[in-house]
UniProtKB/TrEMBL annotation:
InterPro entries, sorted: PriCT_2, TOPRIM_dom
Organism lineage: Bacteria, Pseudomonadati, Pseudomonadota, Gammaproteobacteria, Oceanospirillales
Signal sequence interval, chain numbering: none
Keywords of the record: ATP-binding, Helicase, Hydrolase, Nucleotide-binding
Highest taxon, organism lineage: Bacteria
Toprim domain span: 263-341
Protein name from the UniProt record: Putative DNA primase/helicase
Transmembrane segments: none
Molecular function as annotated in GO: helicase activity; hydrolase activity, acting on acid anhydrides
């Protein structure tokens, strides 16, 4: 079905018929508006979002920045508003009016596409400077467990050892400046002085990633071995990453020393689960960080260990509605033609 492009006034009217409380709908409409209008669509989406019961300006700004245009067309809004009872006012349009509206819509899409291209180029640059900063952190501010009788409260609570993970020698702050496209490191007492001199409110283009001496630091590498990012796990199990740090397709490998052709290679979501599987079996285990990334890391492990059977170690949580960890891991295993296993331990 084809339809004439919506005017701004028509879009605002159509949005009034759509509740802003369902988060998936909220995000999809934001994506549709950003696809059509680029950054000019923010006031329209934010105005509509304020009708939701859980509206929060800071959350809306964060989600808007994270939206990648191109996934949802503006026709999604038209279709959903119509389903909720909106009827577009019938009006006669001349061929000239239709051509003008179509040309305006095409121009908006062109500008939005240019903005997407520019954002992607900037993202790649930021990923590179963050990767370089993570390498500096690893070389200058991290250590292994050789002189630590108890390397981490988190590892002690989980009852697993340290396999390739590292620990901060001192407090470290990674300051990611998306405006200047650079990353600065502050360590020890410099961290306190940095916060003392920080303008208030904090500028939106500054993003902080802090490492504390009690944290576990998991290096995240691409398949070629390049360090791309870091994950920190604090004593409570909270896991954090630096802004713009690449995660997709990256992993931490707990390898098997002295066994170049292991019979089995496994992939798990979190570090503690992976370490537990490794200690119980001796298999090499890749830490994929989450189930979505497991779908990207599993084929990489199959390529790195072509003689080995691939096992996906999923999280089994029957108390969660639908048990998505188990269901999705089983579906992924079926798609990849491998085995899904569910360790009987506390999930990492």
């Amino acid at each position: 079905m084809t339809w004439d492009p919506l005017t701004i006034d028509e879009l605002r009217l159509a949005l009034q018929y759509i509740p802003a409380d369902d988060r998936d709908t909220w995000v999809n409409i934001g994506n549709a508006i950003k696809t059509e209008y680029g950054e000019d669509g923010w006031p329209i989406w934010d105005e509509w979002s304020q009708g939701g019961e859980r509206y929060n300006l800071a959350d809306a700004k964060t989600v808007w920045r994270s939206l990648s245009p191109g996934h949802v067309p503006l026709g999604f809004v038209n279709k959903l508003a119509t389903a909720h009872g909106w009827q577009r006012e019938r009006r006669e349009m001349s061929a000239g009016d239709r051509r003008r509206l179509k040309a305006e819509a095409e121009e908006r899409r062109r500008k939005a596409a240019e903005a997407v291209e520019a954002d992607q180029a900037k993202l790649e640059r930021m990923r590179e400077v963050v990767a370089e900063a993570c390498q500096r952190v690893l070389e200058q501010h991290l250590k292994d467990t050789s002189d630590l009788p108890c390397p981490s409260p988190y590892l002690e609570r989980k009852g697993v050892g340290a396999y390739g993970v590292l620990f901060p020698k001192r407090a470290v702050l990674v300051n990611v400046d998306s405006k200047r496209e650079r990353v600065d490191l502050w360590a020890g007492e410099e961290v306190r002085r940095f916060y003392a001199d920080l303008p208030k409110p904090r500028p939106d283009h500054l993003h902080f990633f802090q490492l504390r001496p009690s944290d576990v630091v998991v290096p995240l590498r691409a398949s070629g071995g390049k360090l791309c990012s870091l994950q920190t796990i604090n004593h409570l199990g909270t896991k954090l990453f630096p802004k713009f740090g690449r995660k997709m397709g990256c992993f931490h490998l707990i390898d098997t020393v002295g066994e170049p052709l292991p019979p089995v290679v496994a992939v798990a979501e979190g570090y503690a689960t992976a370490a537990s599987v490794h200690e119980a079996t001796g298999w090499p285990v890749a830490v994929a960080l989450d189930l979505g990334n497991m779908a990207r890391v599993a084929p990489l492990m199959r390529s790195m260990f072509p003689q080995s059977q691939l096992v996906l170690c999923g999280d089994d949580d029957p108390e969660t509605n639908g048990n998505p960890g188990r269901t999705k891991a089983q579906a992924l295993a079926e798609k990849l033609g491998c085995v899904a296993a569910f360790p009987s331990m506390e999930a990492a």
